[in-house]
Amino acid sequence: MTSRRRKVLIGLGAAAVVLIAYCVFSIAKPTVLRVTTEVDASPDQVWQVLTDRTSYPEWNPFIVSSTGELKTGAKITNVLRDSSGSETIFTPELLAVEPGRELRWIGKVGFGGIFDGEHSFRIEPLPGGRSRLIQQETFRGVAVPMTAGWLEGKIKPQFAAMNQALATRAAALG
Fold first, then answer.
1. Tens of pLDDT, residues 12-49
2. What is the 3-state secondary structure (H, E, C) of the chain?
């Protein structure tokens, strides 16, 4: 084996190791967005607003459309609007549908491992008939580290806007 060929093979091997390490790191270390809002409404009222998806265009600044059966294992179609007004359509799979407690799904770009997001809405009861709404998404995949700033700046504010709009609408039910 020539010296030049050996150097090329060592260089390719080193590049492969770096690429593998990056992939492992990007999947193992997720980016998490989380917004918590206290709501002057019961968990059932919060759930009612959250799952009345035909009304989303009236009040929801983040998920402007959502269709499909709310059943664990089913796929739904969501249209998201980021804080700049850009819209994205995706079809996540529902992982949990627990009335008054949790709605959770996973969306993937491609076959998975590129840009995966597990999104949840958790509702916790508080004293006095109030609730805590926790909207969270855990992003994993090789493209996530390159988009973390965008997620924080364009998507997280929409979580807060949706939580606040949902809280206002749920409180009006009572």
1. 665 555 555 555 555 557 899 999 999 999 999 999 99
2. CCHHHHHHHHHHHHHHHHHHHHHHHHHHCCEEEEEEEEECCCHHHHHHHHHCHHHHHHHCCCEEEEECCCCCCCECEEEEECCCCCEEEECCEEEEEECCCEEEEEEEECCCCCEEEEEEEEEEEEHHHEEEEEEEEEEECCCHHHHHHHHHHHHHHHHHHHHHHHHHHHHHHC
- Rounded to 5 degrees, what are φ and ψ at 26? -65, -30
Strands 93-98 and 63-67 come out as: unpaired
